[in-house]
Amino acid sequence: MTEYLLLVVYAVLVNNILLAQFLGNCPFLGTSQKMSTATGMAMAVIFVLTFAGVITWAVQWYVLVPLELEYLQTIAFILVIAALVQLVEIVLQKTAPALYSALGIFLPLITTNCAVLGVAIINIKEDYDFANTVVFSFASAVGFGLALVLFAGLRERFALSRMPRALQGTVSGLITAGLMALAFQGFMKLGG
Amino acid sequence: MKTLTQEFTKGLWEQIPPFRLVLGLCPTLAVTKSLEGGWGMGLATTFVLVCSNLFISALRNVIPPKVRIATFIVIIATFVVITELVMKAYTPMLSETLGVFIPLIVVNCIILGRAEAFASKNGIGRSLLDGFGIGFGFTLALAVLGALRELLGTGKLTMFAQANLDLTIIPLGEGREFLFKFMVDPPGAFVCLGAMLLLMNLISERSARSKAA
Predict the structure, then answer these.
(1) pTM for this one?
(2) B36-55 pLDDT tens trace
(3) Residue range A95-115: average pLDDT?
């Protein structure tokens, strides 16, 4: 149990996927202007990333390795993720229309979110077993959500403040993200 | 209609990624700890971008519009796998430095973005020039960012670790550590990219003002 708890702390705080590993930064800067969009994106990522982590793990160990096709990992994974996103979209639309209308517009964007493919590849690289894969994928996605929502909260404040034109938009966003990354770096001591 | 030269040079300033087109931020932030990581990533991306632009442009009348995104991704992924295997074989150290970000070229939005916005609508010649232009712009941006961070963070410049080509620009005394380590740490990446973008904004603002005057 402790092992999983440590993995969660490691993935959410110490080695945050956005601020320390730089995966998924396009949606991080792109969907953080408003709190509501940020929450929607965070939810959609948590949902898809956990699923994608599990399925790509199964594809790697039950399809690619037995057939000795490991070199096709990149192609196989991206196709699986693209198909999965489509499937999730269709299933949600039919079974949970309320959830679909909340997450709908974010789902197609997730195919090109490198956090999803990145975590899938890290799971294989680190040789995680099934339980570790589930925990790590979920915790990484939660870390993504946490950083995104905190960041959106900060940026909403910016909309009201006056700043030089050259600093507006992406520039102030990047510098804020840098300061946030600095704060998260403080958690490194937790990992020893 | 742009001239062919303009098609190439627009990638170097007017639309230079990741500054003007704020796309492809993940590799930009992650691999620019050193000059080598910067140009290595830039060239790998350029190769994939040029090849995928070429193929997508050549096949643009054959690909059914409804499944075009999926088709683009398969084409891009093919070239990424080629790059991945070639780099693993011939430049193992560079491939180690870039790590997970080589397979992640697949989801670099610059490439899919150019495929969708340019290559699927234009002829082969123009698409090739567009690919080279945007690719070199990206390489240039990454190399400058990488050089800046490495120089300020460690005092060295790594050209190509495999051939032992590094320069010590700011020499350090025996057993002393460089103090501005912030630059090579993750927060430095965000701040440094932000500062570069700010500088570009200021330059274009000034040139726009002098044009208006």
Answers:
(1) 0.87
(2) 889 999 999 999 999 999 99
(3) 77
Instruction: Quick: pLDDT tens for A17-49.
Output: 888 888 888 788 877 888 888 888 888 889 889
Residues B118, B130 contacting (CB under 8 angstroms): yes
Q: What residues make up the domain containing A112? A: 2-191
Average pLDDT of the residues of chain B: 85
Give me the residue from A23, A166, A179 closest to B198, CB to CB.
A166
Tokens (6 digits) for B11: 């990638």
Task: Check: CB of residue A146 under 8 Å from CB of residue A52.
Answer: no
The domain total for chain A is: 1
Is the minimum CB–CB distance between A148 and chain B shorter than 8 Å?
Answer: no
Q: Give A81→chain B minimum CA distance, Å.
A: 11
Say if the ipTM goes beyond 0.90.
no
Which residues of A fall within a CB distance of 8 Å from B24? 26
Q: Would residue A24 be called left, alpha or beta, if left means φ above 0 and alpha means ψ between -120 and 50 degrees?
A: left
Q: Which of A18, A50, A27, A17 is nearest to A109 (CA)?
A: A27
User: Is A26 in contact with B191 (Cβ distance < 8 A)?
Assistant: no
- Residue A50 near residue A134, CB atoms below 8 Å: yes
| CB-based contact A79 B193, cutoff 8 Å | no
Asked if B84 and A170 come within 8 Å (Cβ–Cβ), the reply is: no
**Averaged pLDDT, B2-17:** 78
Sign of the Cα torsion A79, A80, A86, A90 reads positive
Interface of B with A (CB under 8 A): 22-27, 29-30, 70, 73-74, 77-78, 80-81, 84-85, 100, 103-104, 106-109, 112, 185-191, 193-195, 197-198, 201-202, 205
Query: B83: buried, middle or exposed (CB in 10 Å: 19+, 13-18, 0-12)?
Result: buried
